[in-house]
Design brief:
The structure is a single chain. By secondary structure, the protein is mainly β. The chain contains two helices and 13 strands; from the N terminus they run H-E-E-E-E-E-E-H-E-E-E-E-E-E-E. Strands 7-6-2-1-10-11 form a six-stranded mixed sheet, with helices on one face. Strands 4-8-9 form a three-stranded antiparallel sheet, with no helix packed on it. The radius of gyration is 16 Å and the shape is globular. The N and C termini lie far apart (46 Å).
Length: 223
């Protein structure tokens, strides 16, 4: 309890949003097996999160990490750069990049596997399937531990419902900013054929037809 309280205190004392890189899509409740709690639970694999460079200059993501009220991931590798208008997908360390691409496709977008996203001390653990105003507070921080973006997502109105499970939540094309993604109205549930969303291929790891658009961000100009 003390560890969780300390992480929560750090998150809610965060500096103002300052980055051009934003959280643009979150797969927090896949229909595929995503992992769980207990010694016999499978590892966290099929969750993922998309980052998007909404600015007009390249962004160096080396040293950036994800944090929530439970803990944090390892850092994104050095020399990871995201060009303006490009997206990058972060996946748990127990999922390989090749297995992710086998399910979701081999587009030009980058995929980075992060340790510390799964069960353990001071780790990100699972992304909450029953989020609230205190759980899940998902934060992207830079190497100096400054807040780049933060999303306290929920599954209650005005946020899109995650029922039925298996669809990511996607930031609307007109809402691609660190300010807009704080609000539930800015997000929609992924639907096949809309905003680049598609069903994944069923594989050994991705054992259901989840729906999302990893690496594909539809901007307002292309609507």
């Amino acid at each position: 309890m003390l560890r969780t309280a300390l992480w929560t205190a750090v998150i809610f004392a965060a500096a103002p949003m300052m980055g051009q890189v934003i959280i643009s899509e979150i797969m927090y409740n896949p229909a595929s097996t995503e992992g769980g709690y207990g010694d016999d639970a499978p590892p966290v694999q099929t969750e993922w999160l998309e980052l998007y460079n909404a600015g007009d200059a390249p962004a160096d993501l080396g040293g950036h990490f994800l944090q929530d009220e439970d803990g944090r991931t390892a850092a994104i590798p050095a020399d990871t750069t995201l060009k303006p208008g490009e997206a990058l997908v972060l996946i748990p360390g127990d999922q390989t990049v090749s297995d992710f691409r086998a399910a979701w496709g081999r587009g030009a977008y980058q995929v980075v596997s992060l340790d510390g996203w799964g069960l353990g001390d001071d780790t990100l653990d699972n992304l909450a399937n029953s989020p609230s105003d205190r759980n899940e507070v998902l934060t992207l921080r830079n190497a100096a531990e400054e807040v780049v973006d933060q999303v306290n997502y929920d599954d209650e109105s005005p946020w899109p419902s995650d029922s039925p499970q298996g669809g990511s939540i996607i930031l609307r094309p007109s809402q691609l900013s660190a300010q807009a993604n704080d609000h539930g109205e800015s997000w929609v549930i992924a639907r096949e054929g809309e905003l680049g969303a598609k069903k994944c291929q069923v594989t050994e790891d991705y054992n259901r037809e989840d729906i999302g658009s990893p690496g594909v961000v539809v901007s307002e100009s292309s609507e």
